[in-house]
Amino acid sequence: MITVSFATAARDQFLGGEFRRSYGWLTASVHRLVGSRNDAEDLAASAFTELAGMEDVGQIRQPRALLTTIARRLTYEFWRRRDLEREYLEQLAQAPEFSDASPEDVCEAIDELLRIDAALQSISAKAREAFILSQFEELGYAEIATRLCVSVSMVRKYMAQALTACCALA
């Protein structure tokens, strides 16, 4: 016979009750942000999954506020990922030599871009911008320095930060 501790039962009761009370409300809130019922349901479910993954849910005093914060973060990540995918597909459409890419190749490329994007989130906004200008707009360091209003040596430092973050992926 398996015994369930009081803490586990209380945790399950809290999570189940909060899910029943707030899932519909959270899905509707996220739906207003993303405009898609399916995406809203996925994001709300992910928010509850993160809530369930927290160690001590008994200490949560305002579960809806916490769920809102989690869901908004997930929504921003969703938007960033969607924008990155859209940008990649636009670039792919403009490059005729890559127009024959298989769906698997496209998915792999998008996954790799998402990994790079995640790695670049650990560095400053200017370092990210310097990296993007260098790699995607093919600007030289002097042009990047002018555009960012920094010195060329600062651009070198930004690029070193970006490349270090990307190398950590391997």
Provide structural commentary:
This is Sigma-70 family RNA polymerase sigma factor. The chain starts with 5 loop residues before the first helix and ends with a helix. With 170 residues, it is an all-alpha fold. It is built from 7 helices and no strands.
Radius of gyration over all CA atoms, rounded: 22 Å
Number of helices: 7
The percentage helix is over 70%
Low confidence ranges: none
Hey, roughly how much beta strand do the residues contain? under 5%
Cα-to-Cα separation, first versus last residue: 46 Å
Write down the oligomeric state. Answer: single chain
Coarse structural class: mainly alpha
Number of strands: 0
Family: Belongs to the sigma-70 factor family. ECF subfamily.
Protein name: Sigma-70 family RNA polymerase sigma factor
Keywords: Sigma factor, Transcription, Transcription regulation
InterPro entries: RNA_pol_sigma-70-like, RNA_pol_sigma-70_dom, RNA_pol_sigma70_r2, RNA_pol_sigma70_r4_t2, RNA_pol_sigma_r2, RNA_pol_sigma_r3/r4-like, WH-like_DNA-bd_sf
